[in-house]
What we know:
Elements: E1 6-13, H1 17-26, E2 32-37, E3 42-48, E4 54-60, H2 63-74, H3 87-97, E5 101-108, H4 112-121, E6 126-135, E7 141-149, E8 156-160, H5 164-167, E9 180-189, H6 193-204, E10 219-226, E11 229-236, H7 241-248, E12 253-263, E13 266-275, E14 279-283
Parallel strand pairs: 1-4, 5-8, 9-11
Antiparallel strand pairs: 1-5, 2-3, 2-6, 3-4, 6-7, 7-8, 9-12, 10-11, 12-13, 13-14
Helix pairs in contact: 2-3
Amino acid sequence: MSSTLIFDHAILVVNNLPVAMRQFTQLGFTVTPGGVHVGGLTHNALIAFTDGGYLELLATSRRSTTTLLKVLHFTRVMRLYAPARFPIGKRLLTDIASGVGLRDFALLSSNLDEDLPPIRQRGLALDGPQPGGRQRPDGQQVSWRTAVPATIDLPFLIDDVTPRLLRFPTGSAQQHANQVSGVTGVIVAVTDIEKSAEHYVALLGIDPQEPSQFPLPGTRSIDFALGSTILTLVEPARGNATLRKSLATRSAGPLAIWLQATSPEGSTQIALTCQPGRGITLSRSNPYS
Length: 289
């Protein structure tokens, strides 16, 4: 049995969008300006792949907004901020307030009205669907809906109101100098792998796979297969100081994205990480080995 959900995109929070766009261009990616989100607080740029997934570079439209979000997050009053009154707003603004890095990811639903009832019947609480959207640089309005699980170890869900091709760049935007063609894996750090595995079973409607295709030294790990993308949950062992430090500032979240690069010589896996103090890293070896 396969899940009705597939990988949609990963979110990398950046301080300055134009600077981040130049950095990713220098790494061999084709970066497409995405536009301004409804409400005007944030804007983005997209790195689209031929497998249908993409990376979203997300930043506030004004630096002063980032400062405000960090204060609200630190003082634990984000819920009082009007744009954060809906779960998706609170989640993404908290992602930004938490600082630069690989902060979140989303799974694509073909129809949330059909997918949410069986998920809820499996015992998982989600808010939504809630409307969202942005205006592209060419003036085109793009609309979607999101559903947000109550637990932070899970991705949020998205479906499209306007055609997905308006949200997802196509053609030459999917051709990259570094030959990356898609997302093959997402590594998600969790503090309790048994509990998180139960959450993922309820969300996806499928059982986990062991052993993991992307094992990390000093961790326990299990996989969930979503088409061509593998979601790997990892729980650090007692002696794994690197991952434990990562989880000290958040209880769960994506650590790395595995990308597939295809060339005439064959295919290879590239790990992408984006962490405070270390910047953007592309590696052909396991970034946490």
